[in-house]
Design a protein that fits this description.
The structure holds 2 protein chains of 2 kinds.
Chain A: E1 2-10, H1 15-25, E2 30-37, E3 43-51, H2 54-66, E4 70-75, E5 81-92, H3 96-107, E6 111-115, E7 119-126, H4 128-137, E8 143-148, E9 152-155
Chain B: E1 2-4, H1 5-15, E2 20-23, H2 30-38, E3 44-47, H3 51-65, E4 69-73, H4 77-81, H5 83-91, E5 96-102, H6 118-122, E6 128-131, H7 138-150, E7 157-162, H8 163-167, E8 169-171, H9 191-203, E9 207-211, H10 213-217, H11 221-231, E10 235-237, E11 252-255, H12 262-270, E12 273-277, H13 283-286, E13 297-302, E14 316-319, H14 322-334, H15 342-356, H16 372-382, E15 388-391, H17 395-403, E16 412-413, H18 424-434, E17 440-445, H19 456-461, E18 467-472, H20 477-486, H21 502-508, E19 512-516, H22 522-531, E20 537-542
Classes of the chains: A alpha+beta, B alpha/beta.
């Protein structure tokens, strides 16, 4: 099953490679990964998506907790949460395609954020099924470049991941 | 007090109570070596002949004493040579602290002379590591290293210190304590879980204690012994756990696993309640995981939550320090009205005694050729079972574990997890340095001993009169055994050709060498060797090269599928 695991880790050089190294050393798979600073400059928020059965996920969380640089870990999949991903996609947009792509973007509430004589760059925010659906709706031959942020996640309600 | 980074390292180690430091100098640690010369008062540095041996010796020092072992090596090749020792310590959860020199911060990443990414290379085989970028952080980083290495599930920690940081100055105050927000150690097992474990133990009809190195490392030998005797259940110990419960006790049914006893493995296979304490269900213990303990409810006490249900799903997990958990358990048992089921327990013991009676460790004695098993039995007799025994890795290691019954913890020093050939001699050095008056013997083979034989020189320099019992069968015995069993006797590269004359070699290093070929003179010679209290003696014992380690569970088989002879 797909799990979104999110953690706060010390803002130290090498912290990210400890997490990545753990996954490769123990044969776990990272499907998506995103890291960025938080309101607390001493920690970074790392969110990753992995696949595994219950026992594998339990081991992953235990091993992450064992890393000295990892301050807090949560498996967001276990509770109500919001998942979002940012998609930036560059499309060949000429002739009749220009109007059609604009309409499709509107349907998905995506925005055209850059335009050239032959291309559109479109931005879309949503969960994975939405971004997947948008990409699937496009004529594949028009796609020039795809950039996805990987999933970000946050717990619903008052619950939060904090030190 | 303003000190250089190098002086801080030395001063800190002394303030922390470190007495021995194993190492080898080089360009990027020259300031620390200079500080050892000018600043050290109590700290003794032991100059090894290869950095790998420094890590093993410090590792053994820790295994024997329970204190962390300390290593100091230079950057680049100094650090890479220390890697095998780090991995060895990591696999067996040994608190080892390795300080490496690094090129100056301004040169990091520029492929400078003797530069490697030490922190990157060592990352997967340390509990944690640090690169010190500011001299102001140095003392606290050292304190953190000791704290992390020695608490929770212990393990090696590496501190990489660039040369300019060693030369930079700052005020030094010994940090009395440290707290790390992201590192929290469990200090107490959950009492509800301990209660559940007792309930399960009380209902058991065919119980077995299965205990490992965690009992030794957690200094819980006394508690374990009391618990096992209180319950009256059989106990089997892993290779790493030997000695935590006395092997000579009637409740001990020997080592389990690939080369464990028949009674231990069958008791595991047929038990209904398994009480695992400080053991990690290693593949050499479980055999085929699908066939492991098919009828057992499992209790597992371990300090490391990640060890629980890693290989085998357990029913009653208890996370906590073994000594504390067992103390609590004993305390609850003192107020317990229920007693173990005497009737079923007596039937269980009757069954175990039946398995025991086949005497799986029996071997064919000989008057023509020296049997390796007999050498270990003799070693036990001559040292009165009270020596520190280190071993290398291979057949001789298994025979030492099988035929030298250990009655005390921290007496059996070997590389169980990583299985590192070449540890035996440096291990003996580490133990002898810690306990100069104790008898220390290294059981090795002609293959393993050559992997760190240069340390004979260190032994002479520091007066370490260990006894080396080399079971020389002219083969990489364990490799040969597997080739005999599983590769149609194609002995590919397992024959040790062009062996040196060990007696001459050892004499060249300034020690005493003996070659023994006749079984009749083995005892006299070994007594002679141990009578030379202040000399290192190397016994080159020519043993039966056809001998195999039995019993054996072939890889992939279940615990009830042993080859007996």
């Amino acid at each position: 099953m797909r799990h979104i695991i999110s953690m706060l880790m010390e803002n130290e050089s090498g912290a990210l490679s400890r997490v990545a190294g753990l996954f490769s050393a123990r044969g776990y798979n990272i499907q998506e990964l995103t890291v960025a600073p938080t309101e607390d400059e001493t920690v970074s928020r790392l969110t990753l998506v992995t696949e595994g059965n219950e026992q594998q996920i339990e081991q992953i969380v235990k091993h992450l907790n064992r890393l000295v640089d990892v301050v807090k870990v949560v498996d967001l999949t276990n509770g109500e949460h919001i998942e979002r991903e940012l998609l930036l996609i560059k499309l060949m947009a000429t002739g009749a395609h220009r109007e059609e792509l604009k309409r499709l973007a509107d349907i998905f509430r995506a925005q055209i954020v850059d335009v050239s004589a032959t291309t559109y760059t479109i931005q879309l925010v949503g969960n994975k099924s939405k971004t997947d659906a948008f990409i699937n709706a496009l004529d594949a031959s028009l796609i020039l470049e795809t950039v996805r942020s990987g999933a970000l996640g946050i717990m619903r309600g008052e619950k939060r991941l904090q030190i | 007090m303003e000190l250089t980074g190098a002086q801080i390292v030395v001063k800190f180690l002394e303030d922390e109570g470190v007495d021995h430091l194993w190492g080898y100098p080089g360009g990027a640690v020259l300031p620390i070596y200079d500080a050892l010369d000018t600043t050290a008062t109590k700290l003794q540095h032991i100059l090894v002949r290869h950095e790998q041996a420094a890590t093993h010796a410090a590792d053994a020092y820790s295994r024997a004493t329970g204190k962390p072992g300390l290593v100091l090596v230079t950057s680049g090749p100094g650090a890479t040579n220390a890697i095998t020792g780090l991995a060895t310590a990591y696999m067996d959860s040994i608190p080892l602290i390795v300080i490496t020199g690094q090129v100056p911060t301004g040169l990091i990443g520029l492929d400078a002379f003797q530069e490697v990414d030490t922190v990157g290379i060592s990352r997967p085989i340390v509990k944690h590591n640090f690169l010190v970028r500011n001299v102001a952080d140095l003392a606290l980083t050292l304190k953190k290293a000791f704290y992390i290495a020695t608490t929770g599930r212990p393990g090696p920690v590496l501190i990489d210190i660039p040369k300019d940081i060693q030369n930079a100055k700052t005020d030094y105050v010994y940090p009395e304590s440290v707290s790390i927000r992201s590192y929290n150690v469990v200090t107490k097992g959950h009492s509800g879980q301990i209660r559940k474990a007792i309930d399960l133990m009380m209902t058991a009809e065919r119980p077995v204690f299965y205990t490992g190195g965690g009992v030794v490392l957690g200094d819980a030998s006394a508690q374990l012994t009391e618990l096992v005797r209180t319950m009256g259940y059989p106990i089997t110990q892993t290779l790493m756990g030997l000695g935590a419960f006395p092997a000579s006790d009637a409740q001990s049914i020997g080592m389990l696993g690939m080369h464990g006893t028949y009674e231990a493995n069958l008791a595991m296979h047929h038990c209904d309640v398994l009480i695992a304490i400080g053991a990690r269900f290693d593949d050499r213990v479980t055999g085929n995981i699908e066939k492991f303990c098919p009828t057992a409810k499992i209790i597992h006490v371990d300090i490391d939550p990640a060890s629980i249900s890693k290989n085998v799903k357990v029913d009653v997990p208890i996370v906590g320090p073994v000594a504390q958990v067992l103390d609590d358990m004993l305390d609850m048992l003192r107020h317990e009205k229920r007693k173990p089921n005497a009737e079923s327990l007596s039937a269980w013991w009757k069954q175990i005694d039946e398995w025991r009676s086949i005497n799986c460790m029996a071997y064919q004695p000989s008057t023509k050729v020296i049997k390796p098993q007999s050498v270990i039995e003799l070693l036990h007799k001559i040292t009165e079972g009270d020596a520190y025994i280190t071993s290398d890795v291979g057949q001789h290691q298994m025979w030492a574990a099988q035929y030298y019954p250990f009655d005390k913890p921290r007496r059996w020093i070997n590389s169980g997890g990583l299985g590192t050939m070449g540890v035996g001699l440096p291990y003996a050095m580490g133990v002898k340095m810690a306990f100069p008056d104790a008898e220390v013997a290294c059981v090795t083979g002609e293959g393993s001993i050559q992997m760190n034989i240069q340390e004979l020189s260190t032994c002479l320099q520091y007066g370490l009169p260990v006894k080396i019992i080399c079971l020389n069968n002219r083969f990489l015995g364990m490799v040969r055994q597997w080739q005999e069993f599983f590769y149609d006797r194609r002995y590919s590269m397992s024959y040790m050709d062009s062996l040196p004359d060990f007696v001459k070699l050892v004499e060249a290093y300034g020690h005493v060498g003996m070659k023994v070929t006749d079984p009749a003179e083995l005892e006299t010679k070994m007594r002679e060797a141990f009578a030379m209290k202040d000399r290192l003696v190397f016994m080159d014992i020519q043993t039966d090269h056809t001998e195999n380690v039995y019993p054996m569970i072939p890889a992939g088989a279940g615990q009830n599928e042993m080859i007996l002879v």
